[in-house]
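Subject: mismatched residue count in predicted assembly?

I count 637 residues in my input, but I want to confirm that the predicted structure covers every chain. Input:
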Amino acid sequence: MDWTTSINTILKEEQIMSDIPAPFRVLVEKEISDHVRSWRFMILVGLILLTTSGSVYTILSVIRDNPAELSAESTYLYLSLFTSSINNLPPFITLIGFLGPLVGIALGFDAVNSERNNGTISRILSQPIPRDYFINSKFVGALIVVFALVFALGFLVLGIGILFIGILPAFEEFVRILMFLIFTCIYIAFWLNLGITSSIVFRQASTSALSALAIWLFFTVFYGMIVRMGAQSFIPNEATANSLTLMFSRVSPDYLFNELTTVLLTPSIRSLGALSFEQVSGTLPSTLPLGQSMLLVWPDITALIAGTLICFGISYALFMRQEIRA
Amino acid sequence: MIAIKDLVKDYDNTRAVDHLNLTIGKGEIFGLLGPNGAGKTTIILTLLGLSEPTSGSVTVNDRNATSEPIKVKKITGYLPDDVGFSENSTGLQSLVYTAMLNGIPREKAIESARELLEIVGLQDAADQKTKTYSKGMTQRLGLADVLIKEPQIMILDEPTIGIDPRGIHDFLGLIRKLSKEKGMTVLLSSHLLHQVQKICDRVGILVGGKLLAEGNVHDLADKLFGARETSFTVVADPVTDELVHKLQEVPSVSEVKKNGTGIIVTGSKVAAPLISQTVVQSGAKLFRISGKEYGLDDIYQHYFEGGANHV
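Triage response: the counts match. Full output below for your records.
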């Protein structure tokens, strides 16, 4: 008797507890609804859908009409949906690698400064919530949106592929695609954090957007060139120059992401560097299992996650130390 | 309810608040007056734990605002001077959002948001997006936003900024009414004297981060001008040179000046009955005698003119 009543009271309390909205949840929900309803987000989605559908559609029609046109060693049809490039249309992974940072920066560049300029930040922070809820909810809210977007897109491509080709993807293919989508999210999260950081540093939304875009352009366009030029002009030995170039290139998140996703989606890649003839001799021209591919890019994975976390840490520290008043 | 002890706040090289002491009792409406940059907002942010004091302590309802900000923020409603709302939400949605951040379930939040919108007179604009609101409407929504958490303390930073005079009257009336009905403590900052004078029980004058004086408006005036001379305007007929001469001989009158049909008499406060007596005895008709009442304006003026000496 005693314990049933006590259980009942506990259940009742649980009931009451679940009615009370948790502030963090409320903040995140608000973030998500703000993002999803914004014109900016719709434009981004439209842009991504337009560009990727072109690429995927061409590949699908090739697979259906003339599969021999695809590279002969690619036994993974579904992976080639994401990686093949036909008629000079960039493949899906390149498009995502290009548009992903744009999505991240677009969702983050005015996260804090717009609230500051609207006069909402002091009102929100005067509610009974810890200060870091604000910045955390900015990150988590946008991240959830990114996850939803990337996975929706990836599964859409898969689904359309199944409809067109009529064969189910192999389990390993599916897992590889899942991995690819997850790392795409992490990659976008990096740029998202960069956007949020610059929204804390710069008062003006346009300055913040431009500075984040400048960093992105630097890494995608100039960084590789600078590294290559530097290595080639200062180091006479070509092999050392190459390995140095590779090492320094990997500082760029863009390079990391490309390397990572290419390896994940192309099981025939066996090494990231150059292999000598002795090493290659005697090997069978086969594909790597998923575990081995993962092993190959493990450093890239760690670096990418670390970069994302460092970026978030910086924005967190900056925000917590910043004065609220305008 | 609010106790500020020896508060100091430095920004880089400037001292925004300088050894400030202040207590505000429960149910009191306290006006914090001072020019821009006097440190009003800094004090308010410190009260909410949003800014850390360099030294000194701030307690709200016996809770230290710096170390237990959440407990303080639970019972305190804050209306910032540049209050704004998420542009694409309606007024109702904004209030419900604030309520839910305070742990009020959605259904109850919607109910009390509607009630509050009626109280502040925004019931017709409840479902309009807040970006269509005028400044006055935004301020009223801000007040509703403060009230929805049912605070024990309201902190209003420059609440009348940007509202037209009629709106200010209504807005301040509303604040006073709500505060007295619910026994809420109100801290209100402003650089506009007349408005604050009307609704505050007590005011403090803040210049350069120092509280120069505090008390109710009359006390302040007495403290400042009590010892000084008051000027009386005497309207009488006829005003003869003889009358002027006689007035000059009245004890505690220092100066008499003829001014058309009136006479300006300067002297101490107690001279009033003697002046009227003299006028009547001299055979002139006395129409009016009025002493100048010192208001906040004069107090303010006094401090700002002498500001440099005090700081």
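Residues 307-311 of chain B have pLDDT under 50 and may be disordered. Marking this ticket as 'not a bug'.
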